[in-house]
């Protein structure tokens, strides 16, 4: 199935294309509605209430569907969309979309990688790092329980002079590095097979294997996509290479970390702690083994968020939908054929 065939089908669509936005979404979708109105598109909020059958019944009427982390658009869901429809993912990650199934049905998938996440996520990663290393959250809890002068009962180590290990060296990782430099981090190791040594040298960073990072870095920050290659990169074996000063930060994808293995290491005080904005299972479940651990900081996948980033992501996602409905060729087309 080629792009020309997709465009031919698109030309046969009804005069008012339908764009569905899945809920839960954002507080207001007037931004998307205003942009899509310019091409005569109808915007529908898909209140599927987490019920898959209800969602599947809605899909055949859509020309474009716009989604966040949920729902999962697997092969069955994509088969329910009209051939030649389109999918827009608010944000960067597309691991909840079967890209091959969409390609086979001539359905372009677009994401929004340029909404400014490098600012917010880098800020959040730095905030988590400081909160973990300086024990801000646990100290606040202790003081609230009338504990005082904890001091060396729970050692705190200086950030300046620490070795920083980065997994992935994209825009967010580089922005995070710039923030950590301000706190005196000089020695930087990077595991990213897709980045050259010369490129790393421009940032005064050195290439390393992940095993080397686990053994040498006091702060390890994950900035890699969720792929078969990166799944459970942090596992029982790699955690065993770390030590009692290792601080693990994850603002990328929850699947990079084996939750059970990490929980076991934290319970046994094998590492200093972990600060995670993403989890393998989201939203967090009652039985998540990380809940309640004193050396863990958990946030609700909010690293991307600010009011500025929300408006930007809504605008750019709506423009991607417009591109699909008009030219058939979105700027950020992730499943090209």
TrEMBL record:
It comes from the Bacteria. Residues 127-303 form the D-isomer specific 2-hydroxyacid dehydrogenase NAD-binding domain. Pfam families: 2-Hacid_dh, 2-Hacid_dh_C. GO terms for molecular function: NAD binding; oxidoreductase activity, acting on the CH-OH group of donors, NAD or NADP as acceptor; transcription corepressor activity. Residues 36-335 form the D-isomer specific 2-hydroxyacid dehydrogenase catalytic domain. The keyword Oxidoreductase applies. PROSITE patterns: D_2_HYDROXYACID_DH_2 (PS00670). Keywords: NAD, Oxidoreductase. The keyword Transmembrane does not apply. Belongs to the D-isomer specific 2-hydroxyacid dehydrogenase family. This is D-3-phosphoglycerate dehydrogenase.
């Amino acid at each position: 199935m080629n792009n020309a065939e997709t465009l031919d089908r698109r030309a046969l669509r009804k005069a008012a294309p339908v764009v569905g936005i899945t809920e839960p979404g954002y507080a207001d979708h007037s931004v998307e509605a205003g942009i899509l109105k310019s091409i005569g598109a109808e915007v529908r909020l898909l209140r599927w209430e987490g019920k898959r059958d209800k969602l599947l019944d809605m899909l055949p009427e859509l020309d474009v569907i716009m989604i966040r982390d949920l729902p999962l658009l697997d092969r069955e869901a994509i088969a329910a969309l009209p051939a030649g429809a389109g999918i827009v993912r608010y944000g960067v990650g597309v691991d909840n979309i079967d890209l091959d199934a969409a390609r086979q049905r001539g359905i372009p998938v677009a994401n929004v990688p340029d909404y400014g996440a490098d600012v917010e996520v880098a800020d959040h990663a730095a905030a988590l790092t400081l909160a973990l290393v300086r024990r801000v959250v646990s100290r606040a809890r202790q003081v609230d329980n009338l504990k005082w002068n904890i001091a060396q009962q729970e050692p705190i180590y200086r950030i300046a002079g620490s070795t920083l290990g980065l997994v992935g060296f994209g825009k967010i990782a580089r922005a995070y590095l710039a923030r950590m430099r301000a706190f005196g981090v000089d020695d930087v190791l990077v595991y990213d097979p897709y980045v050259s040594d010369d490129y790393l040298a421009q940032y005064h960073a050195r290439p390393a294997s992940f095993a080397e990072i686990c053994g040498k870095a006091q702060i390890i920050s994950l900035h890699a996509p969720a792929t078969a290659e990166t799944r459970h990169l942090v596992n029982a074996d790699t955690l065993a290479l770390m030590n009692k000063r290792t601080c693990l930060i994850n603002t990328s994808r929850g699947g990079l970390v084996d939750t059970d293995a990490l929980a076991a290491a934290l319970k046994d005080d094998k590492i200093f702690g972990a600060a995670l904005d993403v989890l393998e299972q989201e939203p967090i479940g009652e039985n998540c083994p990380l809940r309640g651990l004193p050396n863990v900081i958990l946030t609700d996948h909010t690293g991307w968020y600010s009011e500025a980033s929300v408006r930007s992501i809504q605008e750019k996602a709506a423009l991607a939908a417009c591109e699909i409905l008009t030219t058939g060729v979105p700027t950020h087309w992730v499943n090209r054929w």
